Amino acid sequence: MVGSCGGAFSYWHQLQCRFLRLDLGDRAALCDALGQISPRVDLVMHFAAVAYVGESMRDPLQYYKNVTVNTVNLLDCMAANGIHQLVYSSTCAVYGNPEKLPVTEQTPPLPINPYGQSKLMAEEVIRWYARSQPWFKAIILRYFNVYGSDPQGRLGEYPRPELRSQSRISGACMDAALGLVDKLTVKGTRHPTEDGTCVRDYIHVMDLISAHVVAMKHLDNPPPLYNIGTGKGVSVKQFVEACQRVTQRDIKVVYQEEARPGDYAAVWSDVSKINRELGWRANFTDIQEGLQHAWQWRMSHPEGY
């Protein structure tokens, strides 16, 4: 998917956007689209990727093609059209099972699944490209676990039905609350954490958006790197309990000892660098509030868009 927007970011509700449905693997179509968009593109935000850990363990080639190779295609087409600015969406999955928490931008990346590895490889492609092209500027943002919806109910997340078994815990809980699945399965109860379930740093999608608005003003060469999170860890069990409180539905929860393939036990962010250097910090840090936004959207869109 490729989109272009025009308008003032401080008045984002007035933006006019045009979307083109494209496969980033189709280099010719991508290059043509970037060249034909008017007004001329001067900055690209690259969000496009498959992003399911379990799926990446079953089908690693899809991830290396979709994440790494397609990033190469995008950079190639940007160069062909004289576009020299990039905001790249990476992931905390590059950290794997870190020895020390919270993770900083200096924590060695040691991914344990193809999703994290393919993202790290894409990061390296961007860094090496920047070294070779002094006029190219970028920024790399490592997302932690994104959830939530627009508080005003205009946009929300609806997982593809065929990926429900791999769905993120927020989508899976909503599916169970709506009766789309008969139970919510929590995979992995023997991790070395306080309650045995995975611990994650859940970042609200609206905070993620605000981070990008700030980030586009701080592109550089070499590309700076920032964690995008809240700075605190929440266990999957705690997340599920918050979801039950929000939905007030009788959700059947099954705790499975066996962990999801490729999962890491715990990771949460140190966000002091982006707080200090860019002045950004998360505003939606109450998990229950963020889940309330997601539930409101799912209640008004029970079958998706």
UniProtKB/TrEMBL annotation:
Domain of life: Eukaryota
Keywords assigned by UniProt, alphabetized: Carbohydrate metabolism, Isomerase, NAD
Keyword Transmembrane helix carried by entry: no
Lineage, top ranks: Eukaryota, Viridiplantae, Chlorophyta, core chlorophytes, Chlorophyceae
The NAD-dependent epimerase/dehydratase domain, residue ranges: 18-229
Pfam family, one: Epimerase
Protein name (Swiss-Prot/TrEMBL): NAD-dependent epimerase/dehydratase domain-containing protein
One annotated GO molecular function: UDP-glucose 4-epimerase activity
InterPro entries, per database record: Epimerase_deHydtase (IPR001509), NAD(P)-bd_dom_sf (IPR036291), UDP_G4E (IPR005886)
Biological processes, Gene Ontology terms: galactose metabolic process
Cofactor: NAD(+)
Annotated family: Belongs to the NAD(P)-dependent epimerase/dehydratase family.
